[in-house]
Amino acid sequence: MATTRRPLVAGNWKMNGLRADGAALAAAARKGADDRCDVALCPPATLLTTVAAAIEGSSVLLCGQDCATETHGAHTGDIAAPMLADAGCRLVILGHSERRHDHGESSALVRAKAEVAVAAGLAPIICVGETEAERNAGGALAVVGQQLSESVPDSAPGLVVAYEPVWAIGTGRTASAHDVAEMHRHMRDCLDTMTGVDALATRLLYGGSVKPGNAAELFAVADVDGGLIGGAALKANDFWAICQSAAEAV
User: Fold this and answer.
1) Catalytic residue chosen out of the listed positions 130, 164, 184, 186
2) Is 130 a catalytic residue?
3) Is 164 an annotated catalytic residue?
4) Residues 6 or more apart from 90 whose CB is under 8 A from it?
5) Which of the following is catalytic: 96, 105, 134, 184?
6) Which of 14, 112, 148, 149 is least surrounded, with the fewest CB atoms within 10 Å of its CB?
């Protein structure tokens, strides 16, 4: 990592956890916090208040998993960015592949959500990544570059970008260090061409079957500033081993 950018490890719990689970996992996260690394917990909406209470007064950040393009109104089932901020969130994940593919979200929609999130004072974690077919066809860099250009708003203070190759999410497969280095360098170059984006200050995360056994290698790659962690974030010991790897990579 070797950079002035402070590493960030965000644990995306996805659609997992009841109140007892959330309270216990958040309490473990609070005990394991490392002052060399920012840590964020991204619980489902039903656990936001539970987790917020458990991490209150600590350095652990609260992060939403998604937000609507509207700030209020007749939008049953949606959660507005101001509501997330009011619940204590500092960040919000947008454009995760499970939203893009399962719900048909376009990059234009992700951008609209990011604009609303920024207006509410939230830092967006914008996710990008190619499918296995796109990589096999040699289009990975072009696909991710287009997602970035269409998803990142003109102004996004605190912007974080997470590269999550779709074929590596929840599959146990992980991109090689070479592929991660190539993609993260490409993303940094793409961001450098965008108006209103500080490419050097933007934290780039890797996500996709990150585990304690491969975290150190991945976080040592140039332009990797931490990780967006899925399954391993649901196991306190694994998650904190990953956070320790990120802290030690500085």
Assistant:
1) 164
2) no
3) yes
4) 40, 61, 62, 63, 122, 123
5) 96
6) 149
